[in-house]
Description:
The structure is a single chain. The protein has helices at 30-41, 46-53, 57-76, and strands at residues 2-3, 12-13, 25-29, 80-84, 88-89, 93-97, 103-106, 123-125. It is of the alpha/beta class. Zinc ion is lined by residues 97, 99-100, 102, 115, 117-118, 120. Zinc ion binds next to loops.
Amino acid sequence: MRKVVEPPHFKEYRPVGINLKRRQSIDLFYEEYEALKLADYDLLNHKEASELMGVSRPTFARIYESARRKIARALVETQTIKTVFGNAVMDKEWYMCNNCHARFNIPNKIIQGDCPVCRSENIEHLNK
Length: 128
Ligand SMILES: [Zn+2]
């Protein structure tokens, strides 16, 4: 169980100014993104961050280390970073609109089956 508050705000992070024809990419798990965010953006120590994610400190350290290595590899090898669900557990059901890229969560279920922003029905469930 790796608790993640909300999914990353993007599906892919791509380098600009290089030839992307080979289209190599690195899968960054939601929990790896969360670990990096808690430690290096929110500036929590590993004890606090591990408690928030519901994992032991060694497990947190492993997830965090894996995240850093993936980001470093993506930067050095100019690879696209894709965010994928991995082993995350989220309190709410998260959805993303593939038309306008809005992200939203609904406690129970989508009632109308469309995007609350643009009304597109091209919606992706992120908790999977
Ligand atoms: Zn939309």
